[in-house]
Design brief:
The chain is α+β, with helices and mostly antiparallel strands. Helices cover about 25% and strands about 40% of the residues.
């Protein structure tokens, strides 16, 4: 039911309101009383508060002839006035019996009833009866209340609905034509102009495989298979340029957003782009306000790739970078970049960051960096690492393979975590401090760390070395070897040289209260240990010294005193 319809009472409805016996049902009478020819169905529903009851009652009242839409109600009142005049003229005729008590109705009675029904337009029960076309003048033949028998052209409301539907269909057809035009428009004709504009903007040759359009999630121009520079320089799976209308007309074209997805870009090409060396991008033909980057792969040389970077770049009106931000997929590393004449300045901030190819986690990290052609320098590293603090610098060069170098200061690292990360078979406790220097080269990331050379000057305090008991070995004086056990110490100093083939410990000195030991050890990369320690035990009355040989395979070691 149309909520905008307005109903009015017919004469029968007015009479039913005055005579409560005509409409007995409570819900019908409640709705009938409220019908006043002014309130719409929506107003009646809001006033009574029960939409289903109101609509059901209105249908029954309309079918019973008690109400009619406002236009029909006027017609019913006019018919009632005409009927009243005809009834007054017929009162001068002699009365005639309408019904027979015992037998069938007479023809006169039948004619009288027919005339009465025709004159009044209502049955004895108040139901309106349509006048016969043969008895009423053509101009008086109008539909009374039954709305279903009216012709559509006689109802202004239905004419309005028909016009509305036609308008909606016209709009839908126009939109369909527009969508089809947008989708199937030959955008390939713009490819040369787009390639030329992108080439000037990036200062590198640009080729595009396909140009099209996408409507979801927003209308955008879509560039598929974009290649930048040489084959190794970079490629982009898809570029979406929003604001299609902004590309029309004359330059400069203001583009609110560009989305770059599935890009693989060489670091050397990245730092060579005009926007990343502090220059304006292009010749002001296209001014991009924001660039969103999704699934970026950044390559360093031929064998090292940093995967799944996401970012956002904001541009100034001259095409230079105002702000650039990148982050890893798990958001553990955030990189803010600032263009400069010497390279791309980086500010790094990490949370629970795990470098690719390792299982070591940096609880927190802050550093400054500089990305240049064939070189990445990370300075002022300050990180929480293996339970302690690491500060230092690191350099990566990929001009000829991969080469790295670094230095750092260690402070209160958990030695148990250090050994678990780098030498799981070595069981040692304590707090480690010291310095380190490292360098390496390799053809890829794995071989780079496999060829690592490092020098560590360490001091471990308040710890224990598990695997051998030096004190017990001295007490046995060579009678038998000592297997397993542990040696507690207050301080353990050493200089450790790490090469791809072996680990050498020099200037090893251990202080454990009344026991001191000085020596060295050597370990190939197969967990075997061979070491010699000069151990001195000081008691209250005497001093005992012995040369102790330590050997075995970690973590099971043996110690014996040489005679």
């Amino acid at each position: 039911m149309d909520s905008n319809l307005v109903y009015a009472k017919t004469p029968t409805g007015d009479e039913a309101v005055r005579q409560s016996t005509r409409v007995v049902q409570r819900n019908l009478r409640m709705v009938l009383v409220q019908v006043d020819g002014k309130m719409s169905v929506e107003d009646l529903t809001a006033k009574i508060g029960n939409p289903r009851l109101v609509q059901s009652a209105l249908r029954e009242l309309e079918e019973g002839g008690f109400i009619a839409p406002t236009a029909d109600a006027v017609s019913v009142w006019e018919e009632s006035i005409k009927a009243a005049k005809q009834e007054a003229e017929q009162e001068q005729m002699p009365p005639m019996s309408e019904f027979s008590t015992f037998g069938p109705k007479s023809q006169a009675a039948s004619e009288s009833k027919k005339g009465e029904s025709t004159g009044t337009g209502f049955s004895s029960f108040g139901k309106p009866i349509l006048p016969s076309p043969s008895q009423i003048a053509p101009e008086a033949v109008q539909p009374a209340i039954i709305a279903d028998v009216r012709e559509p052209e006689d109802c202004p409301y239905r004419q309005g609905m028909s016009a509305g539907r036609k308008g909606l269909l016209a709009i839908a057809a126009l939109l369909a034509i527009l969508v089809v035009t947008v989708i199937f428009y030959p955008y390939e004709q713009f490819k040369p102009a787009l390639e030329a504009s992108a080439t000037r903007m990036l200062n590198a040759p640009v080729k595009i495989d396909r140009v099209g359009v996408t409507l979801f999630p927003s209308p955008s121009l879509k560039l598929v298979g974009v290649k930048i520079g040489e084959p190794a320089d970079g490629k982009i799976a898809e570029v979406r340029i929003s604001s299609l209308l902004s590309l029309l007309g004359s330059a400069p074209h203001q583009v609110a957003r560009v989305e770059v997805s599935g890009a693989t870009l060489a670091a050397n090409r990245l730092v060579a782009l005009p926007m990343f060396i502090g220059q304006a991008a292009g010749s002001h033909e296209v001014i991009i306000q924001k660039m969103l980057i999704d699934h970026l792969q950044l390559t360093f040389g031929d064998s090292l790739t940093l995967n799944d970077l996401f970012g956002e770049i904001a541009f100034r009106q001259d095409g230079s970078i105002e702000k650039a931000m990148f982050e890893t997929a798990d958001r553990s590393m955030l990189i803010n970049a600032q263009a400069g004449s010497q390279g791309l300045a980086l500010s790094l901030e990490g949370r629970a960051w795990v470098p690719f190819g390792t299982e070591i986690s940096f609880a927190s990290l802050q550093a400054q960096g500089l990305l240049q052609k064939n070189k990445l320098l990370i300075q002022n590293i300050d990180t929480t690492f293996l339970g302690g603090i690491l500060r230092g610098n690191w350099l990566l060069d990929w001009s000829n393979g991969l080469v790295m170098a670094g230095d750092g200061i260690l402070s209160r690292l958990d030695t148990r975590k250090v050994s678990a990360a780098f030498a799981p078979s070595l069981k040692i406790d304590g707090d480690m401090s010291g310095t380190m220097r490292l360098r390496s080269s390799g053809s890829d990331w794995e071989s780079l760390w496999g060829n690592l050379e490092a020098v560590l000057s360490t001091e471990i305090t308040r710890g224990a070395f598990h695997g051998v008991d030096l004190g017990e070995a001295v007490r046995r004086s060579g009678v038998s070897e000592v297997r397993a056990g542990s040696t507690k110490f207050d301080r353990l100093r050493s200089t450790i040289n790490i090469t791809p083939k072996q680990v050498i410990g020099r200037d090893v000195r251990m202080d454990a209260g009344m026991v001191t030991a000085v020596g060295q050890f050597n370990s190939p990369r197969n967990r075997q240990i061979e070491g010699n320690m000069a151990v001195t035990m000081q008691t209250s009355v005497s001093s005992q010294s012995a040369a102790v040989r330590i050997y075995g395979v970690l973590p099971d070691l043996s110690a014996t005193t040489r005679k």
